[in-house]
Amino acid sequence: TSYGFREVPDGQKQGLVNQVFHKVAKRYDIMNDVMSMGMHRVWKDAMISALNPRKEAGYKVLDVAGGTGDIAFRIVEASGRQAHATVLDINGSMLGVGAERAEKKKLSANLTFVEANAEELPFEAGSFDAYTIAFGIRNVPRIDAALSEAYRVLKRGGRLLVLEFSEVDMPLLDKVYDAWSFNAIPQFGKAITGDAEPYQYLVESIRKFPNQENFAAMIRQAGFSRVTFTNYTGGIAALHSGWKL
Ligand code: SAM
Question: Over its length of 245 residues, how does the chain's per-residue pLDDT go in tens digits?
Fold first, then answer.
């Protein structure tokens, strides 16, 4: 489907994505609330319940595309401040905001911030009990590379959880959602950062991302077992789960 937005060649995607998040880093958290009407908090909480992190000091989670830390903070809190979370992101500006927030929440002792690419993780095989990524994988140019890296760095018995925008499967909601995302989101982006185009790109990236079934197939392809998904809010977002067995 064409929504009248120009194609972004593969080689330029990462650069464009980096520009967007560098620009919005300081306003990212407020933008999230505005653009999802607060829903991202509900979806993130549901993701953490699904993970059900162990309340053990040795429990290690890697949160990729972790941005300003929302997922990692929730995991550490849910583990009774026992777990250790590594927040990995390609964007130093987002991580900077995350590290400041962590200080304020007194969570820094349980967190490590790493600037790196999801396609090439700087960790040894079998390092983590869980790998999480929320609203990040659709920004990664080579999704298959990111998924095989996820598989590699997980321990046997480790869990993969991917939260991402997905295909809306409710009549009417899909129309409202289209109107919201193609008009309102770029407008808000423009109002807050002065530039609509990067947001148009992000909205477009949601449309291009594989639907629930197709993404589940990609996760299986990367080697994961018992792959399932759960829709949130009529499929606006979906949580995919897989295990390294
Ligand atoms: N997980 C956070 C959340 O849910 O609030 C942040 C999500 S934000 C929409 C997407 C993040 O993906 C940005 O911080 C961006 O820098 C990061 N990102 C984009 N491409 C990446 C890549 N190739 N490797 C690692 N992180 C990437």
Answer: 334 445 667 778 898 889 888 888 888 888 888 888 899 999 999 999 999 999 999 999 999 999 999 999 999 999 999 999 999 999 999 999 999 999 999 999 999 999 999 999 999 999 999 999 999 999 999 999 999 999 999 999 999 999 999 999 988 888 888 888 888 888 888 887 787 877 788 888 898 999 999 999 999 999 999 999 999 999 999 999 999 99
Cβ atoms within 10 Å of 143's Cβ, excluding its own: 20
- Contact call for residues 161 and 132 (beta carbons, < 8 A): yes
Q: Is residue 53 situated within a structural domain?
A: yes
* Residue 237, domain extent: 39-171+210-244
> Quick check: is 191 in a domain?
no
Within 6 A (CB) of ligand 1 lie 14, 17, 21, 64-67, 70-71, 89-91, 94, 117-119, 134-136, 139-140
Do the annotations mark residue 118 as ligand-binding? yes
In total, how many domains does the chain have?
1
Angstrom distance (rounded) from CA 192 to CA 74: 27
CA of 121 to the centre of ligand 1 (A): 14
Tokens coding 36 = 């999802």
* 134 occurs within a structural domain: yes
Contact 155, 128 (CB under 8 A): yes
Q: Quick check: is 148 in a domain? A: yes
ipTM attached to this prediction: 0.99
Q: Which residues pair with 85 in a beta bridge?
A: 61, 111
Nearest ligand 1 atom, CA 32: 5
The CATH number of the domain where 146 resides is what?
3.40.50.150
- The residue whose CB lies within 8 Å of the most ligand 1 atoms, and thus the one to mutate among 89, 119, 120, is 89
